[in-house]
Amino acid sequence: MHVKKGDTVVVISGKDRGRKGKVVAVQLDRNRVIVEGINMVKRHTKPSRRNTQGGIISQEAPVHASNVLLFCSRCNAPSRAGRKVLPGGEKVRFCRRCGEEF
Asked: Helix, strand or coil for residue 67?
């Protein structure tokens, strides 16, 4: 997958198009990511030990990984990620626009 937990991404399609956020979780088996503050949904929850009051809770829902692009701070724009292997054998992701490593 081209994104990891902690990356800053920009949504490129859907109701939150153009919004930027931090990746909270990655679901590799479903090819989805959960982005902070993006794709908010309402959940009706029953009272439990964890949530004693219950009620309507707003939380992030997963977004398909193809609908997000990494945000390059140097370009100040969303960019596709390239991969390369450094001489020491280390694998690195880089910005396709400017070449900066993520």
From this structure: helix
pTM of this prediction exceeds 0.70: yes
Residue pair 80/99 in contact by the 8 Å Cβ criterion: no
Check the CA dihedral 5-22-24-80 and report its sign: negative
CATH, residue 30: 2.30.30.30
pLDDT tens digits, 62-78: 999 999 999 999 999 99
What is the number of domains present in the chain?
1
For 19-32, letters b (16+ CB in 10 Å) and e give ebbebeebeeeeeb
